[in-house]
UniProtKB/TrEMBL annotation:
Protein name per its UniProtKB record: Solute-binding protein family 5 domain-containing protein
GO BP field: peptide transport
InterPro entries: Peptide/Ni-bd, SBP_5, SBP_5_dom
UniProt keywords, alphabetically: Membrane, Signal, Transmembrane, Transmembrane helix, Transport
Gene3D superfamilies in the record: Dipeptide-binding Protein, Domain 1, Dipeptide-binding Protein, Domain 3, Periplasmic binding protein-like II
Domain Solute-binding protein family, residue spans: 119-481
Keyword set includes Cytoplasm: no
């Protein structure tokens, strides 16, 4: 007897088709198990299990298809960092990298940077440009209170900026605020008046704001001595909880808890910083699982990190190039020679000796790809050694018996000046080898720190291998305008072109980003045609994290401390949420 017949007999039904004509009574269902044989019960149970499993699979698939993984609140993080905190005060912090990192947690400015390096409002609600770019009116958010309940108003902004401008306080930011006037328009609107239009000034407004009611009674000469420098009250994502120190005052660790007064309350419940004297100590603590994030990872660290560590790379506005001093070198005054050197330079082995793509990014122009005005619409100097030989030959540089070219009795020799640095020495050595392949003799001149700085100040070099720290904007005026040719200006190539000067000046006075980008592109077209330098690489900031930490990735960082500016987005727990329709 099959299962269907057994069920029909147990229920005393005339036929299976009767189910469609009348419902089964409760007594019939109760007697069903007694009527079935063991084999029939197994078959019946297995069928029921399959039906329930199918329903479960369908429901599970429906749930997974219509939901997604999202960050969840909670969890803790321990960060390892080299150095010790001194002033968790945005007015004083830029003198110490550790302080800079910690104030990204505890303070908030009118503006901040997102993960792509763009400037976005933080404590500000909006802003307006007036008087042909000489005034900037910033409207503040009206829904914010300090953690002690006091209202956040324009008075706090004015107090903080005036503190930076006070010479008695000795803020490292003092020079960036010279000539700036600050005034209140109303309780939630502040006006900044500039002596002349200067679009990059908006980046000054990332300065963390201090609560006036807690600092106004501190005398300027005592600003750096106040206890509040280690127990700050701010509007950042985190607020101080507790710190541990030795008997002699050395801070070992500092914990920060979620700040619910912040305009961007974090997902993590707590972040604890552990401070180390040496980078190797931080790496060891990471490998033991005692910390879940460390920065300043170098190529030498990669092989020593524990299994499962996740390396995260972010580009920095820090570029390296070989700058030609045409004013002191007859050879480099010859544009053909500069072009030949550019075509003979292969960046790939340079990047490899520096650790590869994780640690450096190839660079061909003065403005990196992440920044305003980045372009590929300029002359290119791809690696082409045969072309380099041909243009030298065509302009009278003839190879001698030793393979080195000469013209009019002058040997084609280029001396590269570098500081005492293993990486830069390795790069210069590779350049020396590459250039010899086209008949140019390269010499390396290595100087100690003082002598290197003196050579730059005196512009006493033929070619200089050096780095430049670009502003976030990026505003390359200080490095390429002809007015900056001599010390303390940053135009180490002593480059001069009136058309390039004009393009740089436009970009400093025009607030429209499209117009400014066009002027930066025009500047780069002019400069690349003149070949005053060979641009080599852009530095990256690399951190190592535990794989459970997410939300940390940033394509671009203004400086390594800004990694912590997005700490409110970091998370270790997840949940599933319904997808929006």
């Amino acid at each position: 007897m099959d299962l269907r017949s057994a069920i029909r007999r147990a229920l005393n039904l005339p036929g299976w088709e009767a189910i469609g004509r009348r419902a089964l009574s409760s007594p019939q269902w109760r007697h069903l198990p007694k009527t079935l044989t063991i084999r029939e019960r197994i078959i019946f149970s297995f069928g029921a299990i399959l039906i329930l499993a199918g329903i479960g699979i369908i429901a599970g698939r429906f749930y997974l298809d219509r939901t997604q993984i999202a960050p969840a609140a909670g969890g803790r993080l321990t960060v390892g960092i080299v150095g010790r905190p001194l002033y968790l005060n945005p007015v004083l912090a830029p003198s110490n990298p550790v302080d800079e990192a910690l104030i990204r947690l505890t303070s908030a400015g009118l503006f901040r940077y997102d993960a792509e390096g763009r400037l976005i409002p933080d404590l500000a609600e909006s802003f307006a440009i007036g008087d042909f770019g000489k005034t900037i009116d910033v409207t503040l958010r009206r829904d914010l209170q300090w953690p002690d309940g006091a209202l956040f108003t324009v008075d706090d902004v004015i107090f903080t900026t005036n503190a930076v401008k006070d010479p008695a306080i000795r803020s490292p930011l003092f020079s960036t605020w010279i000539g700036i006037n600050i005034e209140a328009i109303d309780a939630y609107t502040v006006r900044f008046t500039l002596p002349a239009p200067y679009p990059p000034f908006l980046h000054n407004l990332t300065l963390g704001i201090l609560p006036k009611h807690l600092w106004e009674d501190v005398a300027p000469e005592n600003f750096a001595l106040s206890d509040q420098n280690l127990k700050p009250l701010g509007l950042g994502a985190f607020r101080p909880a507790r710190f541990e120190r030795t008997r002699d005052g050395k801070i070992l660790s500092y914990s920060f808890e979620r700040n619910l007064s912040s305009p961007r309350p974090p997902l993590l419940e707590r972040i604890t910083f552990r401070f180390f004297d040496q980078h190797t100590e931080a790496v060891s603590a990471f490998n033991r699982g005692e910390v879940q994030l460390i920065s300043a990872i170098g190529p030498q660290d990669s092989a020593t990190l524990r299994s499962g560590a996740k390396l995260r790379s972010s580009r920095l506005p820090r570029i390296f190039a070989l700058f030609f001093n045409q004013s002191t070198s007859r050879i480099l005054a010859d544009k053909t020679v500069r072009q030949a050197l550019s075509y003979a330079t292969d960046r790939r082995p340079l990047l490899e000796v520096l650790g590869g793509d994780l640690f450096v990014t190839p660079l061909e122009r003065p403005i990196p790809a992440d920044m305003l005005g980045a372009t590929e619409e300029t002359d290119r100097y791809d690696f082409a050694p045969n072309h380099a030989r041909n243009i030298l030959e065509a302009t009278g540089w003839i190879a001698g018996e030793d393979g080195i070219r000469a013209k009019g009795g002058e040997r084609l020799t280029v001396t590269v000046t570098i500081p005492e640095n293993d990486d830069l020495n390795a790069v210069a050595t590779i350049l020396q080898t590459q250039w010899r392949e086209i008949g140019i003799a390269g010499e390396i001149r290595t100087l100690g720190p003082d002598a290197y700085r003196r050579a730059i100040a005196e512009r006493s070099y033929q070619a200089l291998l050096a780095g430049q720290e670009l502003p976030v904007d990026p505003d390359p005026y200080a490095f390429w305008h002809s007015s900056q040719k001599f010390d303390p200006g940053g135009n180490v190539a002593l480059y001069e072109n009136p058309r390039a000067d004009q393009a740089l000046q436009i970009s400093r006075t025009e607030f429209n980003d499209d117009v400014r980008a066009d002027s930066y592109i025009e500047f780069q077209r002019i400069l690349m045609a003149d070949v005053p330098a060979i641009f080599l690489w852009q530095a990256n900031s690399v951190s190592a994290t535990d794989p459970t930490l997410r939300g940390v990735d940033a394509d671009f960082l203004q400086d390594p401390s800004w990694r912590f500016g997005s700490s409110h987005e970091w998370y270790v727990h997840t949940k599933r949420v319904w997808k929006s329709l």
